[in-house]
TrEMBL record, chain B:
This is 2-oxoacid oxidoreductase (ferredoxin). It comes from the Archaea. Residues 21-244 form the Pyruvate flavodoxin/ferredoxin oxidoreductase pyrimidine binding domain. Pfam families: PFOR_II, POR_N. GO terms for biological process: response to oxidative stress. GO terms for molecular function: 2-oxobutyrate synthase activity; pyruvate synthase activity. It catalyses: a 2-oxocarboxylate + 2 oxidized [2Fe-2S]-[ferredoxin] + CoA = an acyl-CoA + 2 reduced [2Fe-2S]-[ferredoxin] + CO2 + H(+).
Length: 107, 397
């Protein structure tokens, strides 16, 4: 990891958070080992993954998609990898097995 | 500006009352406390001050010491000058909050009328309570007179609220022997006390206009550095404390240093003692010298952080150092906690003296002048012989 963390002199005392709202900068999804990948062709837009994800990491997007079988969907489901922690609930619950859990490649 | 220090007439006060007067003269804003023997009269007196309108403070009556320190801490974080007092089981009950207070760097001051811990139940004095709390990240003073207690509470707020320090402070004195014994004490006026120790509230205080988050969970990547900040904050304390004490002396005419060496000129052996034992030892030492025992007293005043430089300076040329502990560290190499610590320092600094560990006065077992003379003799004899085991002085076979 090449991120430089602050030294003791640079940090506020007592672990106090002095800049409000900085939790937005905290991406909680950086420690997954498996990541879900949604097959947009297989997905039937049932919304179950969106519903079960404990991290609200499934995004419902206004993104049309036409399958190879020429079926047209107005929306798509995609994963926000900044927050997905790789628990696999979505893949487990997807009724058509449209989600694959694949190993995260560490660069 | 006054050109000269005005000396005032002393009034009779117990150490507990002296502490209460100090808190009043420092104009504390919040007192959250639970009465526990032998501390009770501190908070009784303070509640009287508040009830009589002599002190404009919130007095929070809590149901336990855990709550007492929690409320004191919250008040401190909200920007108030907050005070509490405790002893024994109460201090033990606060233990969790002791770490929270120092970890959040709250400038709280707390007096401790030291007392034995259960079981069996003993309401009497020893120092097991404070020694069990020594690793909680608080600055710790031991005082040996009621006057010193009054003066030290004032110095303690200056120190705690210093921007380079921001640590809570405990001021310890012996239960009953000091807490309930009356002595002449010079009490200053509030104006000069506040001029010496003006209120400097917590810098990140809770304020809706400047929102902060206090007390969040901190992951492993950050926790260590924040704890190291506490280490560094402690490091600067001895110098700061000395400076504050010196300035206190200039203002009020009384100063103590951070470690006192009494009758040390020409002494070949030193006794390390604190609080009332140090006071009694002072009165006994002239007799010891008459008997040919050239023994000095090293009185601990600032205990955390330990004034290492002073200790090394005073002990580098003596043949024997005897440490009196009024607490037991069961099963430790030396079973007096302080002796154990000084053993480490002796190795670290390569000091040549013979170290003797004496445990005495547990549960306020009576210690008479003859006992102190006997201990002085032990210290003297230890120049030429080593006592590897802790001596449990006065325990019956
Ligand atoms: S793997 Fe878990 S966290 Fe990630 S999107 Fe699926 S349910 Fe959400
Ligand atoms: S659970 Fe499966 S089918 Fe349903 S929306 Fe999610 S990916 Fe598509």
């Amino acid at each position: 990891m090449s991120v430089r963390l602050p030294g003791w002199k640079e940090m506020a005392i007592g672990g106090i958070i002095v800049n409000p709202g900085n939790s937005l900068e905290y991406k909680t999804g950086d420690w997954k080992v498996l990541m879900p990948v949604i097959d947009q062709d297989k997905c039937i837009r049932c919304r179950i993954c969106w519903y079960v994800c404990p991290d609200n990491a499934i995004k419902e997007l206004d993104k049309p998609h036409t399958t190879k079988a020429k079926r047209v969907y107005k929306i798509s489901y995609d994963v926000d990898y900044d927050y997905c922690k790789g628990c696999g609930m979505c893949a487990q619950e997807c009724p058509v097995k449209a989600i694959d859990m694949v190993p995260v490649e560490v660069s | 500006m006054q050109a000269q220090v005005q000396y005032k007439r002393p009034i009779p006060l117990s150490t507990n009352y002296a502490v209460a007067h100090a808190a009043k003269d420092l104009d504390v804003d919040v007192i959250a406390a639970y009465p526990i023997t032998p501390q009770t009269t501190v908070v009784e007196k303070l509640s009287e001050f508040v009830a009589n309108g002599e002190l404009d403070a919130e007095f929070i009556h809590v149901e336990s010491e855990h709550s007492a320190l929690s409320a004191t801490l919250a008040a401190s974080l909200a920007g108030a000058r907050a005070f509490t007092a405790t002893a024994s089981q109460g201090l033990a009950f606060m233990h969790e909050m002791l770490h929270v207070a120092s970890g959040l760097r709250a400038p709280i001051v707390m007096s401790v009328a030291m007392r034995a811990l259960s079981a069996p139940i003993s309401i009497w004095n020893d120092q097991t309570d404070l020694f069990n709390a020594r690793d909680a990240g608080w600055i710790i003073y031991f005082v040996h007179t009621a006057q010193e207690a009054y003066d030290t509470i004032i110095q303690a707020y200056r120190l705690a609220e210093d921007r380079d320090v921001l640590l809570p402070v405990m001021v310890g004195y012996d239960g009953y022997v000091m807490s309930h014994t009356t002595e002449p004490v010079v009490v200053e006026d509030r104006e000069s006390v506040l001029k010496f120790a003006p209120k400097r509230p917590y810098p990140y205080r809770l304020d809706p206009d400047h929102p902060v988050t206090i007390g969040p969970i901190v992951p492993p990547e950050y926790y260590y550095e924040i704890k190291y900040q506490q280490v560094k904050a402690m490091e600067g304390v001895p110098e700061k404390a000395e400076e504050i004490d010196r300035e206190f002396g200039k203002t009020f005419g009384r100063s103590y240093g951070i470690m006192e060496c009494y009758m040390c000129d020409g002494a070949e052996a030193l006794i390390v003692a604190n609080a009332s034992y140090a006071a009694t030892m002072k009165s006994v030492l002239p007799d010891a010298w008459k008997q040919g025992l050239k023994v000095g007293l090293l009185r601990l005043r600032l205990y955390r952080p330990f004034p290492v430089k002073h200790f090394v300076n005073y002990t580098s040329n003596v043949k024997s150092v005897l440490v009196i502990d009024r607490a037991i560290s069961y099963g430790a190499p030396y079973q007096g906690p302080l002796a154990n610590e000084i053993a480490g320092l002796k190795v670290r600094e390569d000091l040549g003296f013979n170290l003797t560990s004496v445990v005495a006065g547990i549960g306020q077992r009576a210690m008479e002048n003859e006992d102190f003379l006997a201990i002085a003799r032990l210290a003297w004899e230890a120049r030429t012989r080593k006592y590897p085991e802790t001596i449990f002085y006065g325990v019956r076979e």
